[in-house]
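Hey, I'm writing a tutorial for new members on how sequence and structure tokens pair up, and I'd like a real worked example in the thread rather than a made-up one. If someone can provide the structure for the chain below, I'll link this post from the tutorial.
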Amino acid sequence: MEPVRVASVGLGVWGGNLADKARQAGLEIAGCFARTQEHREEFARVHGGRPAASLDEVLSDPDVEAVMIATPHSTHANLVVAAAGAGKHVFVDKPFTLTVAEGKRAIRAAEAAGVVLQVGHNRRRQPATRRLKKMIAEGKLGMIHYAEANLSYPKGLNPRSGWRGDPAESPAGGMTGLGVHMADNLNYLLGRPARVAAFSRRVIGVGRLDDVTTATLEFQDGALAFLGTAMVIPDIARTAVWGTEAAAWNEMDGERFYVQRAGDKERSAQPIETLDTVINELEEFAENVRNGTKPETGGPEALEAVAVLEGIVESASTGTVVDLDEVRGRE
């Protein structure tokens, strides 16, 4: 398959990581853009491609087939619309957008242009999460009653400067950049959530972001789930599901898998494979571009995680339980 030629838009730490993973996935870095010339030239030196002086220069380049977006969250919708309007396929980092209305606008632009739109919800691709999904589908856990998902780290003790430390870009603290991964995991495993109730606080008060956010989700089939994230505690990366017959855990970001069956007093470790999920999703992106197929986490799937995020932000600010169908209906 001929390598897909992509340009990176947003050249920070994660933009550089995406470019590195893209090359490992067989894509070719054909260009790059950031606001400062120094960043553009250094990025091109490390990853290849032509540094562009403007976004328009990237989007008008006939050698660029697709763009990878790793910019401030609030810019995603406008960049997707611009890229789609130029006929470029789009891979955009999560969160897709900060609101459902923005997400719908981006989806419409991609659909109208007939381009691939893929969002970087990679953690559902972990073999441990795939096994959870398979066990649920095969009824091995019984009737699902409860789930937990938590992605936390202590980096908030040294707050970031710039846009990543801006509450406007990261409402509900770590839920925007971290917890949204786990919102997608829960949607993938349990289906559509119906309602959400959330709390978000600056407990320690380091930096400007909330340092802990929790949410309870009620799913349409009646199951409940806890979704949490904190930015000032030791690392947690867990997705777990409890049913009437058994419970199963994806622990340590996919590196450990445990099962506890009804009647057992302890859970037992199970062998599990691991996978570089970012390379895996970019390999799929390239195949989608070449074959005209739809990505697993395209606009509609990513919009479900956006609805949860928007609902959490609203619930935490108003102190109310939020109907997610009402959020999904926003334009």
